[in-house]
Amino acid sequence: MNRKYRKTVIAGNWKMNQTASGIKPFMEELKAELPQTKSCDIVLCTPAVMIPAMIRGGKECKVAAGGQDVSKYEKGAYTGEVSADQLADIGAKYCIVGHSERRQYHHEDDMLVNAKAKALLEKGIIPIICVGESLEQREMDLTIEYITYQVKAALYGISAQQLRHCIIAYEPIWAIGTGKTATAQQAQEVCEAIRIVIRKMYGARPARAVSILYGGSMNAKNAAELLAQPDIDGGLIGGASLKPADFAQIVKATTQ
Ligand code: PGA
């Protein structure tokens, strides 16, 4: 973390878990566990239908609501899709794009991720842009090249002014939901590489100001070590964000 130049963000990704009616009891437990002073921005990304309940329920804990996906289209005949305008209208402040589960199960490519990030920025929603290599790519020593490509593609056509409203999340695919975390060194190496790419694209100041999160089996035990790395400005947390005590523990780790 480097609080001097950028925001620390702890974002939960509930994926297709929980229900709107589960938010109130979740928040009651979270409130009891959270530290008194705010040390980071807290976000919970839920299915779009749960966002209004998250906004209501999250107020006391100062939890902002985020979506997990968005349509690249502005509006029209796209049955089942949710637009950035619709997300903004119900109060979403953030939205994940390019999560590896969307890339894998819904065949989303880098161009689509770029279009979705732009659609969100247009409506004032902060995109949390996910990038990450597969195990094969890591073993072939292609990690940095692949992540560089993903970051460049995702940010294509996004201005320096807009970059100030973007968050990048490095999520090695092999670490997601597997219990296998990247070591703090591995995560730092890639997050630093991401900042270097952004520096080449936008210059030193914007690169210094962009928050880069780590995601992939981050939990109450390993969060402090990961967050102690200079280029890791927070976490995108799946499994552990569903447990209020664990999620609060990760938030607490940002106070160190
Ligand atoms: P995990 O998921 O923390 O359960 O590994 C992270 C993510 O998919 O964002």
Q: What is the topology?
A:
Layout: E1 9-13, H1 23-33, E2 41-45, H2 51-58, E3 63-67, H3 84-90, E4 94-97, H4 100-105, H5 110-122, E5 126-131, H6 135-139, H7 143-154, H8 160-163, E6 167-170, H9 184-202, H10 204-209, E7 211-215, H11 223-227, E8 234-237, H12 244-253
Parallel strand pairs: 1-2, 1-8, 2-3, 3-4, 4-5, 5-6, 6-7, 7-8
Helix pairs in contact: 1-12, 7-9
Structural commentary:
With 256 residues, this protein is of the alpha/beta class. The protein has one domain: Alpha-Beta Barrel (TIM Barrel), CATH 3.20.20. Helix content is 41%, strand content 15%. The protein has helices at 23-33, 51-58, 84-90, 100-105, 110-122, 135-139, 143-154, 160-163, 184-202, 204-209, 223-227, 244-253, and strands at 9-13, 41-45, 63-67, 94-97, 126-131, 167-170, 211-215, 234-237. It has an 8-stranded parallel barrel, surrounded by 5 helices. Helix 1 (23-33) packs across helix 12 (244-253). The radius of gyration is 17 Å and the shape is globular. It starts with 8 loop residues before the first strand and ends with a helix. The site of 2-phosphoglycolic acid has 13 residues, from strand 8.
